[in-house]
Structures are given as C-alpha cells and as structure tokens.
Design brief:
The chain is built from ten helices and 13 strands. With 362 residues, it is α+β, with helices and mostly antiparallel strands. The chain has a single domain (5-358), classed as Beta-lactamase (3-Layer(aba) Sandwich). The strands form four sheets. The chain has a seven-stranded antiparallel sheet with strand order 4-3-13-12-11-10-9, sandwiched between helices. Strands 1-2 form a two-stranded antiparallel sheet. Helix 3 runs parallel beside helix 6 (173-187) and helix 3 packs across helix 7 (191-200). The chain starts with a helix and ends with a helix.
Length: 362
Amino acid sequence: MKKANTILLLLIMSFSLMNFSCTSSDGEIIIDNLSDIDKKLKETDFSGVVLVAKNDEIIFNKAYGRKNSQENGFNDINTVFDICSITKQFTAAGILKLSMKNKISVNDSLSKYFEAVPNDKKNITIHQLLTHSSGLSVGIGGDYETITEEEFLNQVFNSKLVSPIGEKFNYSNIGYSLLGLIIEKASGMDYETFLNLEIFKPSKMYYTGYIIPDWERNEVANGYLNGIEAKKPNEENWSDNGPYLNLKGNGGILTRANDLLLWSQSIMNNTVLDESTTTKYLYPHFEPTNIYDSYGYGWGIENSNSENKLVVHGGASYLFTSDLWIYPKKGITIIVLSNEFEESVYTIARKVSDFLLKNKNI
C-alpha cells in the first residue's frame, strides 16, 4: 500500500463542511448541543470513536460502527486505531526529550548521525526535519514494504530534493523516519522502546505503541475500504520491532482515544516536556504551509497569538483517518478516530470545535 498521508490529509481538509452538518432553515450550519453530533454520526454510519474533553472532564465519548466482522465486533470507546501521521508528534516529542537531556540539539545536521551523507543533504538540520522544511520528498516506498536501514538510507540519500533546504514546506514522511533513527542513535534504544519509557509510561498511555502493548484482546480495529475488511495494522508486513522504515517514526502508531486524551493532558501539564520545551514544541516555527497556517514540531498551529490557539494534526491512510485538536489555553481536546478513510473526520472535529468555542458555559 503506497503512502497516502499527505494527499489524503489535504483531501480531508478541503472537503466541504456541508458533508456533515445540522442546518437551519436559511442553510447556516449549526450544532445546538453535542447530541446533534451523536445523531448525525449515527445517521451517516460513521465508524470510529469521538472523544471531547474540557480540562479533566470528558463531556462526550462514544463509539460507532464495527471494528471487525467477528460476532459482537463493534467499536467501543477502548477500540485501538492506527492514528497514521499523528505519530509524528510523538517522534517530535522524543527528539525534544533528548534535547532536554543534552543528547541532541535541533540544530544538529544529518552528517552528525549518519555516514556518507551526500553534499546536498549533509547540512539538513533536525529542526528542518521537524518542520518539513528539509527539502526531502514525501516518501520512497510502501508502508509495509520490507526495507533495511541501509537500503532506506541509500534510497533517501540518493533521492532528489524537491526544494532548497530550509526554504519551503514539503510534507515529508522520510524526514520523520530519519528522526526516528536519530532517536535510536542518540538514546541507544529502539525507537518504540524509547517512546514507551520516556513518553507513554509517564503519561500513563498503556495502550499506545507498535508491538509493546499486549494486543491479544481483539481491541485493535481492522481497517475498512469500501466496506471490505482489511487486516489489522499489526497483522501487516511488520518486522519484529514493528513497521519498517517507510512507516516507522512517521506513522502507524496504534492507540485509543482515551490514551490520546492522556497525552493531551500530559502536554498541558508538562508531564513529559518541561514548560520551556513544550513552548518550543507548540511554537509556529515555519509558515506559511499548504496544510496548516503554520507548523510547529509535529503539529499544525493556528491562531497562535490568540486565546483560541489551536494545535492540531490529522492522519490518514486508505483504511484509517484521525484528528487530534488541542486548545491549550482553553483546556479543550477533541479526538476523532475512524477505521475507514472517512472524509467527515476533519469536519466532525471542526463542528465540535465551533460549538465549544461559542458555548463558554461548557
């Protein structure tokens, strides 16, 4: 399966909001209360989980549709989904955690971590990888393609830059896979082992990862394409350490909505990253972009100078779609996860967001 994160994310964000709405007589899109969301999700046969929280209070958390074709195989609020490119924010957090330990600087170049980096790429910095400003292309192969580290690096280093280093935003899964490798080299641990120790466990995210969590209880959803059930993500062609490098570090993390809420709270409470590092994490480092108003480290950033500052990231494959929205100054978290390529995921998050921002009593 070819990498689709960038194309599908752009498609999601360009869909008309009329795909999912409650409308007044004059055509204005409205949501009177969160039960409108519940009703519409049922009417449209949405498959997935929606969780909405304000500070530490969950105000909406419901599941819809099927996670597989087994008897009683329905999604529930603990169903585990492939969150696709939302993975990138964990890779970015891992890099910043290492920077807190003085093992990495975001100004380090590729040549510090890899041998035989060609001249056109040796000065690419970690900062540029984090902000998709490295000039590297989106990807070099399929998500589940077997590829060794040597083969991956050879292909990346022999690929052509799509823009001069540091000048343009070009969404690059390659860049985040390189960051995953840098985490391994700087920490001396496997990528997932490091994330589990330094990010997931401190955040009490016990149902997040590639292979470390115990996935034996049938909680991982199968993806669906045009109503046809596919394999579970972790039943695809993975290595003993999870996905190969076309996916590792840039996508494919498995988690559930409740764990993503714990992650949101961890960010806002500075549980993993200290306050100054969190500020760097959620800072609009590069703008403009063709996806978000600006881009931080693994996050899209909107309204950065207002009380309605939004940090957001989505992900999509041909089988899963996800969105995570956080309003850090308002304590609002919106999570939408689906085991289909579901164009309404972004719209659901947007409509919930609009409703919450207008209703200050919630």
